[in-house]
């Protein structure tokens, strides 16, 4: 009987210590972030061969963040159109690839922005300075283990805008 109590006590101690007093610190979600050209949080690949650095963080129940960028898989779906109303090329290695370290690069010449119209002018004309609006974007996500991040919208401005008085395409 005494041996059974000792064994039960040891097993209980091992169970409590291995689970952190009954609380495990597991992944709760993923956070996808981007650094680079943006317009109030709307990101842009501004110019030919421009890049954005994407980072993926595993968010744990305890609140800690672990960078899992190099172990994540990236994907993107096309939303909207280019500045002419044409389909945006599908995400891939010849358009806007994302490498293993999360670096996204503008390869294809695309403009997914338009300069808003200033209706206070007669006749109405593009805003000067530009007020950039998406016509389309790549809705980008990252997957790590069984988790998928929130989407991040990334426009592409690697082709000059047709309606901006200052040229360019999107925020830079």
Could you explain how this protein is built, in words?
It is a single chain. This protein is mostly beta strands and 172 residues long. It has one domain (23-157): Immunoglobulin-like (Sandwich), CATH 2.60.40. 10% of the residues lie in helices and 39% in strands. The protein has one helix and 14 strands; from the N terminus they run αββββββββββββββ. It has one helix at residues 2-18; strands spanning 27-35, 38-39, 42-46, 51-60, 65-67, 73-80, 103-105, 113-115, 117-118, 125-126, 132-134, 136-144, 147-148, 152-157. The strands form four sheets. Strands 2, 3, 6, 12, 13 and 14 form a six-stranded mixed beta sheet that branches. A hairpin with a 2-residue loop joins strand 2 (38-39) and strand 3 (42-46). The radius of gyration is 24 Å and the shape is elongated. The chain starts with a helix and ends in a 15-residue tail after the last strand. The model is unreliable at 3-20 (pLDDT under 50).
């Amino acid at each position: 009987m005494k041996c059974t109590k000792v064994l039960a006590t040891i097993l209980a101690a091992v169970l409590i210590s291995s689970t952190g007093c009954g609380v495990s610190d597991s992944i709760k979600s993923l956070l996808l972030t981007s650094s680079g050209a943006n317009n109030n949080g709307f990101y842009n690949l501004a110019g030919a061969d421009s890049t954005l650095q994407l980072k993926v963080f595993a968010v744990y129940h305890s609140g800690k963040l672990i960078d899992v960028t190099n172990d994540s898989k990236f994907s993107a779906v096309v939303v909207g159109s280019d500045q002419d109303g044409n389909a945006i090329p599908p995400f891939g290695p010849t358009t806007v690839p994302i490498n293993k370290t999360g670096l996204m690069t503008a390869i294809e010449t695309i403009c997914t922005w338009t300069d808003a119209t200033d209706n206070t002018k007669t006749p109405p004309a593009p805003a000067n300075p530009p007020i950039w609006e998406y016509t389309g974007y790549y809705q980008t996500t990252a997957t790590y283990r069984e988790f998928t991040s929130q989407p991040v919208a990334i426009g592409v401005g690697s082709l000059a805008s047709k309606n901006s008085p200052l040229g360019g395409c999107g925020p830079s």
